[in-house]
Design brief:
3 helices, alpha/beta, 3-stranded parallel β-sheet, 67 residues
Length: 67
């Protein structure tokens, strides 16, 4: 799931994605332009969710371009 807005994503958004991913037995990946609240980061670690900020996605894109 991608949230491209100016505020950090919180636990509520991650909980919704985690529930949806469970339906499909998939590992969720949440991308947030503004990053995540500390509580959301802790939730993601506890639930083995992948999370990325805009900066992290841009860094990943640069690595792929160089490959």
């Amino acid at each position: 799931e991608i949230k491209w807005r100016g505020r950090r994503a919180g636990v509520k958004e991650l909980q919704k994605l985690a529930a949806a991913a469970e339906t499909f037995a998939a590992r969720p990946w949440f991308i947030s332009r503004a990053g995540f609240t500390p509580e959301a980061e802790a939730f993601a670690r506890r639930h083995e969710m992948m999370i990325s900020s805009q900066t992290e996605v841009e860094q990943l894109a640069e690595i792929v371009r160089r490959a």
